[in-house]
Structures are given as structure tokens and as C-alpha cells.
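Problem 12. The chain below contains 229 residues. Write out its predicted structure in C-alpha cell notation.
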Amino acid sequence: MLCLTTVALGACSEEEAELWTEKGFVWFSAENTDFSFKQLPDVGYGQTALAALPFTVATTMENRDRKVNVEVIRQPKDSRTKYEIQTPVVLRANRTSDTLWVRITNSEHLETTPDTVGFRFVASEDFNPGLKDNVAANLCLYNGYVRPDWWDEDGWSKMGYFTQLKMEVFVKVTGGTEDPRGEEGSWNGIAVTYLLVQLNDYIEANDIRYPADDQNAPNQRPVFDRVKY
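Solution.
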């Protein structure tokens, strides 16, 4: 291994070796980040909010802010989608992770038209692009509910498939999007069973139905039950 490392370093130019030793590497913490104004009810149309794209670096910590360069590689497909990168983008002093902030304007078209902005790290004075699979990231915009982490495959086994209409019902009944399992973290608790009864009773009492053109359950009532819409 030592011989191979020596050979590899020997094949590098002095300039490349200096970059390897003097610069850090930067990459996004996630490939895709969902952002929705649905979770910010106080932000009306025409108003703005900040979307966060965390990033990580491989470098020694320093007692100074260091600049990170970002370019846009995917523009929104809809001209009504407005965004602005908050500059400068920096890794703050004595940190090994930070955030790219993007200011998004709330717009009515995002209620029905999802959109995406793509970003990529490029070389700066202090950093080179890092992990290949995470050098680029997408900011996915849609004014609907983002599926909560707790509504995973185990959640489907109790609550059925995630849909916007079911999430609207969930929020109306519970008052929010918090994990229904509570601190116990189990889908088998009596509290979850009782909640499912409440949710389905609310749907029946208010005759809530999917639109006639819904591709999964046209004109049917949503059902909180094992792998159902």
C-alpha cells in the first residue's frame, strides 16, 4: 500500500500535490432537499423564506470564514419560480459543516406545478469539490406536504400510502405533522389504533373524497389502513 501511494503521489504534478494538501473538500449532505411553503402557513404568496441545503467539508478547522463556490446547473422549468442564493456562501470559522441558503418566493403555481433548482460545488480558493456523488444537489419545490420521515414503509403498513389529501386530513385531526407514535416509537400502540379510527371517522363524517381525475382512487374516500390510498 505504501508503495502504491508513493507511486500515485509521484505521478502528480507539484501543483496537484499542493491542492491535495492545502485545500479542503466540500460536498452536499443530501442529494435532494424538499421544500414546501405548506409548512410555513404565515408566509403568503409573494413573500419569501429560506431553504437550507446543508454541506460538509473535509478539512482542518480554522479560525476564519472560508468561501465556498456554488454554480446553478439546473434552472427552474417555470419562469414564475423565483429563487436567490444567499451570498457569500461560506464555511464559518471552526466548523466542518455549514449551510447553503436559498431564498424562495412563495407562488401560487407551486400548488400544482413542482419545480427544481440544481446546484453544484466548484473549486474556490479554499475548497475543491469533494465526494463525486454529492457534489451536486437538487432543491425540490412544491407547495404540498412533504412526506414525513415517520411515514415510511412501516407507516404504510398502518396508515396506507401517503397522499396529499390524507396528509391534509391528518393535520386537521391532529393539528400538525408530528409522529403519531409518540416517544414509544411503535406502530402497535393503542394510541395509534385510536388515531386511525379518528382519521377514518373524520373522512366519513365529512364525506372527503379524492378528485374524479385522481389516478389512484378517483372519487373514492381516502383510507387510513394497511397499504391503501
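Discussion. Residues 69 and 124 are 6 Å apart (CA to CA). Students who got a different answer should revisit the alignment rule from Section 12.3.
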